[in-house]
Amino acid sequence: MKENISLPPKPTSISFSLSLLFLPLLAAATDPVPTPWPLQFHSILLMNNTKGLLQVVDLWYDWPNGRNFNIIQHQLGKKLYDLEWDNGTSYYYTLDANKECKIRHFPVGILRPNWLDGAKYLGQVYRDGFLCNVWEKVDFIWYYEDVATKRPVSWAFFSGMIGHVMTFEVGQVLDDPNWQAPVYCFEGAKQEHKAVLELPFEYRGLVREFLSIPMVI
Ligand SMILES: *[C@@H]1O[C@H](CO)[C@@H](O)[C@H](O)[C@H]1NC(C)=O
Ligand SMILES: *[C@@H]1O[C@H](CO)[C@@H](O)[C@H](O)[C@H]1NC(C)=O
């Protein structure tokens, strides 16, 4: 996985802090900036990994509670629950008779509402029939936002995997009981430590999200 991700070299601390200070100001004077994510929303996404694999993902983003859920339905296949906590722990499980569960530890929390800050503006294109502003972040993700409503329309990963935003309900929150991983996650489930430590902090959240959507069943 790691070999396929071409990321730019880590910036020095000086240029990094300078760019943090000045880039947003410079950008604001000229280019549109992406709308930050609402603190809580529910979205239904159609994912297409370009190799014929389709998934419908229920995304429940819940920043105030430090949690994010991807409920991933493979076409005519498995339903996978990817429950992510801001402390870096992800529970990855099924709720069927197989009772599968894997625990993953990432050295990064969930995506910040402003995770698109500093993305490079590329202009406007039509995407899925919507006129969109497009930004690119660290050669990892391309993000399409509806010019008229500022809602996300689509995003594409470097791998070719594309997400299409089918619904976007701001303020929708999944009830607490649904955020409880099943008991078999706590009975010696396999634990994995995902090393994305070499990457600058702002990229790691993206890598966590990317790794959460399986490329194969
Ligand atoms: C998925 O992507 C492939 C490759 O780009 C494309 O041929 C196919 O039509 C797409 N399927 C859907 C349902 O979007
Ligand atoms: C992170 O929070 C979740 C939910 O409260 C908990 O189950 C998990 O054990 C925590 N992970 C760590 C490393 O503390």
Short descriptors:
outer membrane lipoprotein receptor (LolB), chain A; 39% strand; mainly beta; binds 2-acetamido-2-deoxy-beta-D-glucopyranose; 217 residues; disordered N terminus
At CATH level 2, the architecture is Clam
Using only CA atoms, what is the Rg? 18 Å
Low-confidence segments = 1-24
Reading off the top of the CATH hierarchy, the class is best stated as: Mainly Beta
According to CATH, what is the topology? outer membrane lipoprotein receptor (LolB), chain A
Helix content: 10-25%
Strand count, sense and closure of the main sheet? 12 strands, mixed
Distance between the ends: 16 Å
Spatial strand order of the main sheet:
7-8-9-10-11-1-2-3-4-5-6-12
Number of extended strands = 12
Inertia-based shape: globular
Strand content: 35-45%
- Per DSSP, the total helix count is 2
Q: In sequence order, what are the helices and strands, one letter per element?
A: HEEEEEEEEEEEEH
